[in-house]
Specification:
This protein is α/β, with parallel strands linked by helices. It has 3 domains: 135 residues, Resolvase, N-terminal catalytic domain (Rossmann fold, 3-Layer(aba) Sandwich), CATH 3.40.50.1390; 136 residues, Putative Large Serine Recombinase, Chain B, Domain 2 (Hect, E3 ligase catalytic domain fold, Alpha-Beta Complex); 139 residues, no CATH class. The chain is built from 18 helices and 17 strands. It has a 5-stranded mixed β-sheet, with helices on both faces. A 3-stranded mixed β-sheet has the order 12-16-17. α5 runs antiparallel to α6. The longest helix is centred in the first third of the chain and has 32 residues. The chain is elongated. About 9% of the residues have low confidence.
């Protein structure tokens, strides 16, 4: 008798793997005891935890256990009960038994006391496998009926609610979590203000506010939270599509509001963190930051990364070309493209500070928004009131940047005459708005305002 004849593999499965459950361990103990009584040595244990035996899902343990017998490594496969092997009926169990018979293998079900190598037991296995399939179908129908009933009454049907919410034990509906709702609302407020998700995540992590499942916040977890229907108090539903290969429906991972079959309207599942209108604004804002590629994948929609991109123009006579950021300076694109223009060039920090000074001198009501804003928000403020900024070429190398001599801001309410000369009479707003007489924070165009906003988070949370 060779190793193949005395060796056996075990296959164990548990549909729902909850903490504290010992079903897998009990299955293994009974199977090992059977093997010992019959003089078999257990070679390997194949396990599928949290895997359905009825649904069309990948079961690596099941596949490996079948290969162990069909490849001739072992002769015997032991399962605790036949429904642990499969709940798909003879469609799955039948071909497996046929494959075992061809190479002289066998399937043993301990609790059913069945051995496929014994006369008559294969027929019993076929019958039990069909009963297991019917039982799974009946259970599935009961669960679907219960879910429809709960959904029609706006009850939560299971799963973890979004961050900031919990399930009320009496009503079974969503209600704010007293410990995390305040932070969830602050996340929503920051998103509504247009703050990038990466900065919101950084703010949460700096204050050591744990993510829903522990660890650090990520852009993906924030995006998922803000888009979740339940975050707006609506009952969610995971979208399914028909899988041609598996001949069944499968979940796509896309979560959308559940629609009442009779009214076609979303079903309210309790109190959310934000309103539906607020969520629509957030989703629209997030959508504007991505673009759909030709291959169907979404990628970030990158806007201008620098403050004055698209606003600066070369004032050299006969040029008028836009200027773009190149390293630490804004440079005439005519020069970069090999044109004949000698090209205007200005240090980025100097010209950005000068334009900011002119803007805030003319519109002091924008100071607060400017100091709190990031580059896209500051660009939005500039676009409201600035038509363009002409930049003259420096008269010599090594000279200190003098905005009153080199910049001319064209305000939106004044229009542009289109005149460009090497010797310009610059507008009064630039002459009266030297950077040196303004608060330093005004001149720090790209400076961080994180500290002031961080303190607001903690004080807001403490006062809630």
């Amino acid at each position: 008798m060779g190793p193949r004849d005395v060796g056996a593999d075990l296959y164990l499965r548990l549909s729902v793997d909850r903490e504290g459950k010992t079903a897998i361990e009990r299955q293994e103990a009974d199977c090992r005891a059977w093997a010992a009584r019959h003089g078999l040595l257990v070679r390997q244990v194949h396990v599928d935890r949290g895997r359905s035996g009825y649904k069309s899902v990948t079961r690596k343990g099941f596949e490996a256990a079948g290969r162990a017998v069909t490849s001739g490594v072992v002769r015997t496969l032991i399962v605790w009960k036949l429904d642990r092997l499969s709940r798909k009926g003879t469609a799955e169990v039948g071909p497996l038994l046929d494959a075992f018979d061809l190479i002289g293998g066998r399937l043993v079900s301990v609790m059913d006391d069945l051995d496929s190598s014994r006369p008559g037991d294969r027929l019993a296995m076929a019958s039990l496998s069909e009963w297991a399939r019917a039982e799974a179908e009946i259970r599935g129908e009961r669960i679907r009926h219960a879910k429809r009933y709960l959904r029609s009454r706006g009850r939560w049907i299971g799963g973890q609610p979004p961050y900031g919410l919990r399930i009320d034990a009496e009503s079974g509906q969503l209600t704010p979590d007293p410990e995390t709702a305040v932070y969830a609302r602050l996340i929503a407020d920051e998103a509504l203000s247009g703050r990038p998700l990466v900065k919101i995540a950084r703010l949460l992590n700096e204050h050591e506010i744990a993510a829903p499942r522990g660890g650090l916040w990520q852009v993906g977890s924030l995006s998922q939270l803000l888009r979740a229907p339940a975050f707006a108090g609506l009952l969610p539903e995971t979208e399914t599509v028909w899988d041609e290969k598996r001949d069944c429906r499968r979940y796509t991972g896309v979560v959308r509001p559940y629609l009442d079959p009779q009214t076609g309207q979303p079903v309210v599942a309790g109190e959310g963190i934000i309103t539906l209108e607020e969520q629509q604004r957030i989703v629209a804002e997030l959508g504007s930051r991505t673009r759909l590629r030709s291959d169907g994948l979404k990628r970030p929609a990158r806007g201008p990364a620098h403050l004055l991109t698209g606003l600066l123009f070369c004032a050299v006579e006969g040029c008028g070309t836009r200027m773009s950021r190149n390293g630490t300076s804004y440079v005439c694109q005519g020069v970069r493209l090999g044109h004949t223009c000698p090209g205007a060039r200005a240090m980025a920090t100097s010209v950005e500070a000068a334009v900011a000074a002119a803007l805030l001198s003319r519109h002091p009501e924008m100071v607060a928004r400017w100091e709190e804003g990031d580059v896209p928000q500051k660009r939005a403020l500039l676009s409201e009131v600035v038509e363009r900024v002409w930049v003259a070429r420096a008269t010599g190398r090594g000279r200190r940047f003098e905005p009153e001599k080199r910049l001319r801001v064209v305000w939106a309410d004044e229009g542009d005459t289109g005149e460009r000369t090497d010797r310009c009479d610059w507008l009064e707003p630039c002459q009266s708005a030297h950077v040196s007489v303004l608060p330093n924070s005004w001149a720090k165009v790209a400076g961080s305002t994180q500290g002031a906003r961080n303190s607001a988070w903690r004080s807001s949370a403490a006062g809630s």
